Amino acid sequence: MSHSHRRTSRRFDPNVQTKRFFVPSLGRTVRLRVSARGLRTIDRRGIEAVVAEIRARGQKI
């Protein structure tokens, strides 16, 4: 009565999308690869605050 419990290995990848945002302080649009959760964060905090945090970390936009 034994049956194999081997399953295919499954990956749970984040829902990452490329989105364009207009940043008034830079006067241009920026392209960001963001997850669905990241989009909610941008909606809540605003694109200016998120871009400022990214630049404070020293990452290029």
UniProtKB/TrEMBL annotation:
Cellular component per GO, a single term: ribosome
Record key words, sorted: Ribonucleoprotein, Ribosomal protein
Similarity field: Belongs to the bacterial ribosomal protein bL28 family.
Protein name: Large ribosomal subunit protein bL28
Lineage: Bacteria, Bacillati, Actinomycetota, Actinomycetes, Micrococcales
